[in-house]
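so my prof wants the structure for this chain in the tokens format not the other one, which i didnt know existed until like an hour ago. anyway here's the sequence
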Amino acid sequence: GNNLIQVYSPTIKPADIRIKSLDKSLRIGKPEIKGDTLTVLAMPFPEKGKSFRLAVMNKNSKIIKTINFACDTVPIPVATLGNIKGSEAKRKDILSQMTLRVAFPGSQYNYPYTINHYTFKISTPKGSAMIPVKGFFINNDILKEINAAPDGTVILFTDIKATCPECATRTLNEIKIKIK
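here's what i got, hopefully its the right format
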């Protein structure tokens, strides 16, 4: 599900509303205000069906409402090459991608993971290359290797490291794509 919590009150200004988790396994991000609504990002670390409690408070920390809700299983993040889906893609489609991204397939779950390191690997009859990259952008060296590779070449993005606010760096799945 969606992990944004939005609070609206017709009588209290959003700047005067506070959100507090009442459970250790639910972390609440920095509040954002747009118009008359306060929005926070919630990062649950639950078991499936785990219930959570959240307090909505006024600026004096008086609880206005306690909200109980259940959480589904948090999906496993996976790395993707831009918008490419599947294990084969046309060269022009691969070359048009500019970043590695983090996705949660089959889920509306969303959390701002950022890829901060990966290694690109390619092997062709002319030779092989291994290019370590800091960040999530596809650099020119990688684009040149992909452009020069013959059809049928498999490219790999390995050792993909991603992090998010309030979570440790984790290694994501490798990406393996055959150039058509």
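also thought this was worth mentioning. Helices lie at 91-95, 140-148.
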